[in-house]
Amino acid sequence: MITTESKQMTTGKSFEYALLVQFEEKLKDKTNVEIIKNSALEIAKGCFENVSVAQQSEYLLSASFAVNFLMDIEPRLSNDIGKTDILQLEILSDDHGKSGDVRDVLAIRLLQKWEIGVSAKNNHHAVKHSRLSANIDFGGKWLGVKTSKKYFDTVIPIFNNLEKIRKESGAKKKWSELGDYHSAVYVPILKAFIKELKSLYKKDSAKVASNLVAYLVGNKDFYKVIKGKNCVEIYAYNINGTLNLPFKEILPKYKTPKVPLPTGIVNINFKTGSETTAIVTMNNDWILSFRIHNASSRVESSLKFDINLLKSPKKLFKNTLNISYD
User: Fold this and answer.
1) Which of 10, 76, 91, 184 minimizes the number of CB atoms within 10 Å of its CB?
2) pLDDT in tens, 139-183
3) Where do the structural domains in the chain lie, given as residue ranges?
């Protein structure tokens, strides 16, 4: 059975491959290009070859528009300082995401000590799908501030009970058979998460606020390229100021300003009328929503967050390119 998650993975990886192909195609006559061979490239290529020919041409057309625009705002893609200044193109493995690096496709010039990364999305705007479980220290992993014993004392019995149900049913029990699992599982875990986040914020406010966004949105500067129905959206997450650099006297055609991280959290609470979503409001115009859900129809001893950026700073550069696929 093809799950939504595996379908999303296939389409996402196909789009990554299409971007790599278009980068190579458009830049090979302007500079020396080398594609780094790795398992992530093989996986993306396999996904691309498994979608229909019509989908392939849609991905390639969207990627073509995106790469043309990126070449306009990143002059170092096309310009080298000599024949030995090779532009390397690489697809990153998903493991990088665990440490907060959300980039999928990299363009690297070792000689210029320069790189840009692209996060490729097909029809979805979610920033991350992080998990909670009996042994995931989200504070340590996301924020660099360890989660308290009090938090684990609250969530461990709930997750252990889910594991017991899973084992006793031979991993066949479905969430729909559990009755009101929202009140029994989601609400207490989300409450514990909100309480712990507030407590960690009190411990180290500036660090927690900025690290939360850096981990969830991306801790390395990147372009987010989203393939929509008849358009491509490009966002420049220029948080550290490493994007949009000139090459000698050649300037980018558009300016992508530096984006300020939050330094404080204004509020953390349940979304009005929801028992599955928490809203984290921060200064500098950042608002994140955390929707808790089960990743599978069968009972598992972990839960997933669907995390979305509800609001971002006005300085976050965004450009929409309209495309007709007919």
Assistant:
1) 184
2) 999 999 999 999 999 999 999 999 999 999 998 999 999 989 999
3) 4-126+219-259+314-322, 131-213+261-311
